[in-house]
Amino acid sequence: MAATFATALQRTGSSVLVSTAGELDAAAAPLLEQVLAGVRPSDTVLLLDVHEVRFMDSAGLLLFLEMHRRAQLRVPRVIVVGWQAQPQRVMEAVAGLPPHGGCPPGRAALAGFRRLVQDRADRQRESTAAPVGATASAGSATLC
Question: 52-64, pLDDT tens digit by residue?
Answer without folding.
Answer: 999 999 899 889 8
